[in-house]
Amino acid sequence: MKKEGWILLLGLCFMTSLALAATVKVITQEAMIRKDKRFFAPAVIRVPYGTEMQESGREGDWLRVSYQGKEGWIHVSAVQEQKFQLSSLTGGKAQETSKEEVALAGKGFTPEVEKAFREKNPKMRYDLVNQVQSYKVDEQEIQAFLQAGNLREPGGGS
Amino acid sequence: MMKRFFFGMVMILLSLALLTNCAEVVQVGTTIGQGMGKISPQDKESIDRAAVQTAKAARPMTDEEEYYVGRAVAATILGQYRLYANDRLTSYVNTVGQAAALASDRPFTYGGYHFAILDTEEINALSCPGGIIFITRGMLQKTKSEDELAAVLAHEVAHVNHKDGLAAIQKSRWVEVVSILGSGAATKLGGAQLGQLVSLFQGSVDDVMKTLLVNGYSREQESAADLSALPFLYRVGYNPYALVDFQERLAKEQAGGSSRGIFTTHPGMSQRVVKARSVISQNKWPRRDDPARDRRFRETVS
Predict the structure, then answer these.
(1) What is the rounded (10 degree) CA torsion for B251, B257, B262, B267?
(2) Where are the beta strands (DSSP E) in B12-131?
(3) CB-based contact, A86 to chain B, within 8 Å
(4) In terms of DSSP H, where are the helices of chain A?
(5) Domain residue extents for chain B
(6) What is the side-by-side strand order in the sheet with B114-118?
(7) What is the CA angle B207-A76-B205, rounded to 5?
(8) Checking CA distances to A127, which of A79, A136, B20, B291 falls within 20 to 30 Å?
């Protein structure tokens, strides 16, 4: 009996290591994979919200990732580590739970809720919020601004 | 003996569940356990159910949800204050703010950082969850250099980094949101559920607004935002002393007795200054003023 227990435990450890295998998902509206681990390094490819990528290494706050056959670096704050899906090992019941967890993850305060909230509060100034969110500073502009002010490109972390 | 062994296994599974897809890991274990004849189908079902409940309760607010709360908070603020119509100044504030945000611990949020000036004499700066940050015209006039402006914005970026706005939301509201989501399962939410979610959304926005404009953050949250802002300034090359110099000046004015704006929402500024100053000394960060920055600040703000 004891032997069975150890086999079970080893199996679980194996599954945990699988679970920790690194897949990351973009959690910003869009993100950029860059050639080097710097904010202003040349862009490799733009990735939209929800894109899943394989992570193959980490240096400081930058993750080495590959997407559509292209490799590069993405800042750790733009992605979230994904958990390994074990549903296939346990059959239908787990699939159902997985769906439920997906629902839980995806349906909280959503555009649908915002829309209903706005209809209820027509005086709220979402038009001005959209205006504020349209304020964007071009990457080259920031670089030139930093240089002219004797500032430096931050490393994005410690 | 076997029961105790299996209880041990369940505990291990629950620990693993914290690292992985909670309910699924537990279900793998219970399926194995049932297959080996160690637990009954009834036990399996109750363990699985407990795991799903745990997963629900543990679900934090996502960055996307934070973004929608932040937009509603900003829409409320912009219902009370006008935007200051000065494109050149707004662009300058945005560039300085972006520099501070890039140097922060969370340079990217779902919708990014955006900075705007509120057209009021009140002296204040406010950060909405997710990264919309307001500085008042009154506060802007109090700053005497680009580095001081960067310090004010870096402090607000730190509040976004720390999710202090979201922390103002009553925990019971979020628990209720998650329980509604659970009851809706994977299907489309019904009208009643959507209505409940909208009302909880409204409550959450009210909680954040109350903290931002009435009660203010706690002294601990304010001090933590200062202590985060200092390295943000240092990393990008701004003078960390600008934060304490600016706050010291405001604290002196506070002694003169002003009742609205930052003095109600940023308590105990003088104690915070002492703490921040000691951190700068410990790190031996140099005082770095720069004539080029001073010049462009004078040209744009003064």
Answers:
(1) 60
(2) 114-118, 125-127
(3) yes
(4) 2-19, 87-90, 92-106, 111-120, 126-133, 139-148
(5) 2-58, 63-166+215-300
(6) B114-118, B132-136, B125-127
(7) 10
(8) A79
**Tokens 């240089």 identify what position?**
A147
- Subunit contact A154:B292, Cβ cutoff 8 A: no
C-alpha distance from residue B55 to each of B13, B22, B45, B49, B105 (Å): 13, 6, 15, 10, 27
* Chain A residue with Cα closest to B16: A16
Element containing residue A73 per DSSP (H, E) = strand A70-75
Q: Check residue A46 and give its pLDDT.
A: 95
| Mean pLDDT score, B208-215 | 93
Q: Return d(Cα B65, Cα B71) in angstroms, integer.
A: 10
Nearest CA in chain B to A4: B36
Q: Which of B47, B187, B55, B185 is nearest to A90 (CA)?
A: B47
ipTM greater than cut 0.90: no
Using pLDDT thresholds of 50, 70 and 90, give the confidence band for residue A44: very high
Mean pLDDT, range B186-204, rounded to an integer: 82
User: pLDDT at residue A18 above 80?
Assistant: no
How far apart are alpha carbons B284 and A82 in whole angstroms? 40
